[in-house]
């Protein structure tokens, strides 16, 4: 059977179509389409909720239509609709929910409201098949930095660590802003870092002391440290080499994320690691995770960069897992929950 997934939790309008895999197979991606309002937020240095909602409204139907064209299927082929019901911006979620409810009602198919964060993890199953149980997932995105024990993508996901302040993606965005590099910060820092020296500046590794929480993260000290470095360089008339700042910052982020993930996998006796979310598109994080997982004898799975950042395919993928597990469909009263906890995979 075929599922349509709709994503609108932040500034990306996404629609994806997947085919449910057979037993032991992951869902198959048929095609997806994305529209982004990130350009409209760039001059504000972050997402403006009202602008995001309006952009979703304007691009939703066209994005869905284009996803169908790319996938080579028709609305009459769709057996279920999945939609992000949280976490995310309330007004942005509302647009996707309204669209998904309308499609499900018009086509007379079940609707599944699913968790955006679990969706990021589910994206990986489109490329690498079903997750072994248990899997350790590092979810690194614009709003979250969480270590998860995933026993079952369709229902059993447990948080074992999180950031105590900024998310990793938020740190990228704030550092880019203070360096005058625009929004979103991740891709531009990633690119500039290629010409920099990751050892040029010794930025702090948050929460890595012997008495710090083993699986929690902190990135606000790192962001402040970058700001201090830039300020003091300017004050003393030293030129700031932006590529070196980017490479050194990126190294600090990747170092802490991978060290804690590998440690958690060892502690919990979990042998498969998935890295997901927008920051998983980062070149240095992918390389260091590969290096350290290999050294620790862990299997690493990371979706291709285009499936790491927000998209509709990941929502369709999670919907496929939820539907295949025999979940009860959501009602027409399904509502968005901006603070939906990561363990709530789908909502009635
Ligand atoms: P959440 O998923 O927590 O609700 P979100 O949906 O806004 O937040 P994503 O779309 O998953 O977040 O990820 C966006 C974040 O990923 C931004 O902070 C962006 O800077 C970061 N990002 C994107 N590409 C890269 C990259 N190549 N390197 C580092 N960070 C990146
Ligand atoms: Mg985005
Ligand atoms: Fe996201």
TrEMBL record:
It catalyses: L-threonylcarbamoyladenylate + adenosine(37) in tRNA = N(6)-L-threonylcarbamoyladenosine(37) in tRNA + AMP + H(+). Residues 29-316 form the Gcp-like domain. Pfam families: TsaD. Substrate binds at residues 139-143, 173, 186, 190, 282. It is an enzyme of class 2 (transferase). Its cofactor is Fe(2+). PROSITE patterns: GLYCOPROTEASE. Binds 1 Fe(2+) ion per subunit. GO terms for cellular component: cytoplasm. GO terms for molecular function: iron ion binding; tRNA N(6)-L-threonylcarbamoyladenine synthase activity. InterPro entries: ATPase_NBD, Gcp-like_dom, KAE1/TsaD, Peptidase_M22_CS, TsaD. It is found in: Cytoplasm. NCBIfam families: gcp_kae1, T6A_TsaD_YgjD. Belongs to the KAE1 / TsaD family. This is tRNA N6-adenosine threonylcarbamoyltransferase.
């Amino acid at each position: 059977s075929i599922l349509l997934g709709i994503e609108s939790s932040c500034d990306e309008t996404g629609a994806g179509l997947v085919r449910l895999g057979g037993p032991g197979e992951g869902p198959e991606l048929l095609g997806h389409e994305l529209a982004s309002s990130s350009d409209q937020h760039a001059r504000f240095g972050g997402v403006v909720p009202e602008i995001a909602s309006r952009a979703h409204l304007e691009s939703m139907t066209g994005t869905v239509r284009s996803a169908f064209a790319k996938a080579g299927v028709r609305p009459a082929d769709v057996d279920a609709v999945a939609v992000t019901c949280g976490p995310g911006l309330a007004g942005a979620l509302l647009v996707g929910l309204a669209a998904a409810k309308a499609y499900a009602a018009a086509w007379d198919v079940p609707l599944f409201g699913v968790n955006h964060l679990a969706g990021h993890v589910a994206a990986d199953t489109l490329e690498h098949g079903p997750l072994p149980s248990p899997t350790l997932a590092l979810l690194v995105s614009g709003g979250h930095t969480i270590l998860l024990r995933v026993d079952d993508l369709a229902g059993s996901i447990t948080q074992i660590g999180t950031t105590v302040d900024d998310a990793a993606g938020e740190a990228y965005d704030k550092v880019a802003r203070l360096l005058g590099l625009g929004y979103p910060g991740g891709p531009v820092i990633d690119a500039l870092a290629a010409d920099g020296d990751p050892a040029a500046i010794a930025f702090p590794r948050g929460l890595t002391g012997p008495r710090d929480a083993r699986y929690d993260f902190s990135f606000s000290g790192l962001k402040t440290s970058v700001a201090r470095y830039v300020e003091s360089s300017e004050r003393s008339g030293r030129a700031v080499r932006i590529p070196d700042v980017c490479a050194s910052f990126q190294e600090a982020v990747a170092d802490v994320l991978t060290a804690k993930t590998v440690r958690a996998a060892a502690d919990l006796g979990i042998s498969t690691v998935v890295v997901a979310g927008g920051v998983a598109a980062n070149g240095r994080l992918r390389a260091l995770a590969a290096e350290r997982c290999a050294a620790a004898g862990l299997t690493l799975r990371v979706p291709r960069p285009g499936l790491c950042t927000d998209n509709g395919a990941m929502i369709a993928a999670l919907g496929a897992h939820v539907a295949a597990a025999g979940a009860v469909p959501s009602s027409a009263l399904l509502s968005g929950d901006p603070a939906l906890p990561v363990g709530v995979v789908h909502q009635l």
